[in-house]
Design a protein that fits this description.
alpha+beta, 11 helices, 16 strands, globular
Length: 365
């Protein structure tokens, strides 16, 4: 199952496809007893997708057979033992993908000429992903981090490794011979290569960056390149050869501190926006401002959800879940719209926004 949504992956998911591109969404659960319903619910929603294929006159027989087969293959790949809060299956002629999300999604089947990506986009924003660069004399590892997991990123030139005559990495780790190791020209060139690879990655997928290593390594990395100048430095050696769990435990306190700092900063910015009449709050006002591209910063409480219906195109009004015209993922829709118009989207702890009803924004004009 897929977890990491890069800009390149999102762009590929959004490209037009031969009809039908099928999106199947269903909520999942991490623990008992709630997760006992997940297998039946998943089979039922996939069956509904197949029924929609059967009854859609715009779907030729060959494509119906192909996409149904893709749905079956996707279903076989689902691992509910490691389920999070939502599951998304994409199926189209000749392809399928399964995505596990750490954010709840509504149960839904959509047939279109593109996949429904708003829930993936919102989940990615809510996870506040980050990069961890771990430096050692013989290996530089890049880790893809989020609140639930850390995984090694094996692309874009990473990991970088080297070996050289008379180079004893185990001795360096054991006796701490880092100053001399990080003064030679070979090591400088090794770190320059890492800086170049990291710069290219950050242009493509910018995120907060943490850099781990011995102090001498961190100092030299800053000296030879510029990609890590705004990074949080973590003087912790050994993680270039470490495990994902070791990296996550080393970084977790810093990530939590940054999240608290971010929440306080958002609250201050929203207070200032009130004073200059650039503040909006509530799902209806935010939705209208997002459609007009007026939102510069969107703040959403982590567990805020709203179910609404469109009142003749002018306003959103509350609706019950399951109503025919209900929009159960309106928050994810707003998040995607704001990101597409260049807004800064921040998810903050519940209660941060006070009386703003879970969602607030700063307007451009």
């Amino acid at each position: 199952m897929e977890h990491a949504l890069s800009p390149a992956t999102l762009s590929d998911l959004r490209r037009p496809r031969a009809y039908p591109a099928v999106s199947v969404l269903t909520p999942t659960h991490r623990r008992e007893p709630e997760n006992t319903q997940d297998p039946v619910r998943l089979r039922n929603v996939v069956a509904e997708a197949k029924r929609r294929l059967e009854t859609d006159p715009a779907v030729p027989r060959e494509r119906r057979i192909d996409v149904s087969r893709q749905l079956d293959q996707a279903l076989a790949e689902v691992d509910l033992a490691h389920a999070e809060d939502g599951l998304v299956i994409f199926a189209a002629p000749g392809e399928h993908q399964v995505w596990s999300l750490a954010r709840e999604v509504p149960e839904r089947v959509v047939l279109s000429d593109t996949f429904l990506t708003r829930n993936l986009v919102s989940a990615q924003a809510a996870e506040r992903p980050y990069w961890v660069l771990s430096v050692s004399p013989d290996r530089i590892t890049l880790w893809n981090g989020g609140p639930e997991r850390v995984a090694e990123h094996r692309a874009g030139g990473f990991p970088l490794t080297r070996s050289r005559e008379n180079f004893d990495a185990e001795r360096v780790e054991r006796v701490g011979d880092f100053p001399s190791t990080f003064r030679d020209e070979g090591t400088r060139q090794f770190l320059r290569e890492a800086d170049g690879a990291l710069s290219a990655l950050l242009r493509e997928d910018p995120r907060p960056l943490y850099v781990t290593g011995e102090p001498a390594a961190l100092s030299l990395l800053d000296e030879v390149g510029g990609a890590t100048k705004d990074a949080v430095h973590v003087p912790h050696g050994g993680l270039a050869h470490g495990t994902p769990d070791a990296v996550r435990h080393a970084i977790a306190p810093l990530v939590a501190a940054e999240a608290r700092k971010n929440a306080h900063a958002v609250a201050r910015e929203l207070d200032a926006a009130r004073g200059r009449h650039a503040f909006a709050a509530g799902v209806d006002e935010i939705w209208r401002s997002a459609r007009e591209g007026r939102i510069r910063l969107l703040a959403v409480e982590e567990n805020y959800r709203a179910t609404v219906r469109d009142d003749h195109g002018d306003h959103l009004v509350p609706a019950a879940s399951g109503d025919l015209d209900a929009r159960e993922d309106i928050v994810d829709e707003i998040v995607e719209q704001c990101l597409e118009t260049g807004a800064d989207v921040r998810f903050v702890p519940d209660g941060t926004l006070g009386g703003a009803d879970g969602i607030a924004g700063i307007l451009r004009y």
